Amino acid sequence: MSRKNVLTAETQRRRVNNSLGLCASAVLLLLSSCEKEITVNLPDSEKKIVVEGSIEQGKHPFVLLTRSSPYFAPISDFTNNLFVTDATVIVSDGIVTDTMQGGVNLEIYYPNPVFAYTSDLITGEVGRTYFLTVIADGKTLTSSTTIPTPVPLDSLWFKEDPGADDDSLGYVWAHLTDPDTIGDAYRWYSQILGRQSRLLPNDGSVFNDKFINGQSFDFAYDPSSDPLAPQDTNALPLFYFAVNDTVVVKFCTIDNASYTFLNSLENIRFANGNPFAAPASVFTNIKGGGLGGWCGYGASYDTLVMTLPQ
Fold first, then answer.
1. What's the pLDDT tens digit per position in 263-300?
2. Beta strand 49-56 pairing with 291-305
3. CA torsion sign, 25 to 26 to 32 to 33?
4. Residue 61: is the preceding peptide bond cis (ω within 30°)?
5. Nearest to residue 190, comparing CAs of 56, 58, 61, 303?
6. Are 29 and 270 in contact (CB under 8 A)?
7. For 21, which DSSP code?
């Protein structure tokens, strides 16, 4: 081996050692930098009025008003400023205008009391548009909604789930004929009498006729659960109705603005805590800088006693 070759190999070895030393130094520097505390000053988010209001044919309207709260705010900040009790809330059907009265209400989220604004002068009618004005915290919020013509379900029945532990468990099935008009949208509620205190929207309670316009089809729902109720009072066994349950189903038609709001709200709830979920926002039909929704419901009701086919 020539001296030239020996020197070249030695030079290469030294260069590799130097490179490894530089890499090790870089790693140590990087690790030490990771220990540095980083303080991020989050800007204060603006508190907004959140509107939750609805009107149904044959019933009086109600409106709940709360304030949004920054994500990292103390829990006391949220609870102490939850309900807005000093707002002026006005509802109109285009003929009658009424300033709604605020007070503690036990019916909306029975048996949980909430502060709500109600009107005894306005009663929902199919086909009418209802206008809402909220004056609070120096802002004026407005919205409007329509009560569409109800589209009742053709039929309801109980069907067991072959994958359940026994044949007494299953789902409520329904048959719906969607009118041949594009833009219909729906919302499903249910209540197991004796086990649930009120009608509750199910998971995925809203859908529209984008892919089913003018069609007649079957679909199914499992029981709803009440996040405000003690766990042992929710529909059990979990995810199923049971034989001998008596279930009330409320099936509503809603306008497109209500569907957009409610659908975005459900999408956010489904994605809660999922790091792989696509970023999404809750849409609102409240104008003037508020959040939430003002929704009209064209409702139809059915009662089903769960029995297996003979």
1. 999 988 877 656 666 666 889 999 999 999 999 999 99
2. parallel
3. positive
4. no
5. 303
6. no
7. H
N residues, the chain: 310
Burial class (CB in 10 A: 0-12, 13-18, 19+), 137: middle
DSSP bridge partners of 254: 185
DSSP-based three-state secondary structure for 2: coil
The residues, ordered by sequence, that sit 6+ positions from 179 with a Cβ below 8 Å of its Cβ are 151, 214
* pLDDT of the residue at 69: 67
Positions in the chain whose pLDDT score sits under 50:
1-20, 22-24, 26-31, 72, 75-76, 78-79, 234-235
Q: What is the pLDDT of residue 230?
A: 64
Tally of CA atoms within 13 A in the half-sphere of 286 that contains its CB: 24
Contact present, 136 and 66 (Cβ < 8 Å): no
Question: How far, in whole angstroms, is CA 100 from its chain's centroid?
Answer: 26
CB 93 within 8 A of CB 60: no
